[in-house]
Amino acid sequence: MAYAQIFLYLQILDFLTTLVGFKMGAAEMSPFVRALVHLGPIAGVAASKLMALLMAGLCFWLDRPRLIRWITYWYAALVVWNICVILASPPHIFIVGAHPRF
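Above: the chain sequence. Below: its structure as tokens.
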């Protein structure tokens, strides 16, 4: 059951780090999530997280806890990757209340 909790925490971390990565100028590498992001960044990533939670629920229903453990490791590596991408991005200066000039 600990892996299920860690899996849920990693879903939240992946959601947040992905959105921060988008804000920093990173692009989504997953073709599935990239297609969903056309709905909007928050909606697309949220839809992918919903799919991940539904598949995890299916794994529990089919009594496949080992699969949840492996997926948890995968998402842990993915969150680390997201953080590395964020840290490697060029520095940005954010001014509260400022409007971007594009």
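The longest helix spans residues 65-88.
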